[in-house]
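hiii, so i know i said id send this last week but things got crazy w the move. better late than never?? heres the sequnce for the chain we talked about at the cafe, plus the structure i predicted for it. fair warning i was half asleep when i ran it
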Amino acid sequence: MLAYGGKFRTRGNQIVIGVDIAWDESWNGTEQVRSYRIEGDRLHIEAAPQRYPAFGGKHMRGILIWKRD
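okay and structure toks below
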């Protein structure tokens, strides 16, 4: 599981989230930057590869695709 929330702003093709609350408490108070693009009825959000302490320090990359119904 991976979850976080906070206020966001956009900057070009990036979304910047100011993390207020997170499952991984080390993210609290950080800014998480993701690239995004919209293609038709789909929103693509991609994170750069980064180390996730909650997953044994492995480097991972999150890719989300949201579809509007």
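btw The mean pLDDT is 93. thought thatd interest u
miss u guys!!
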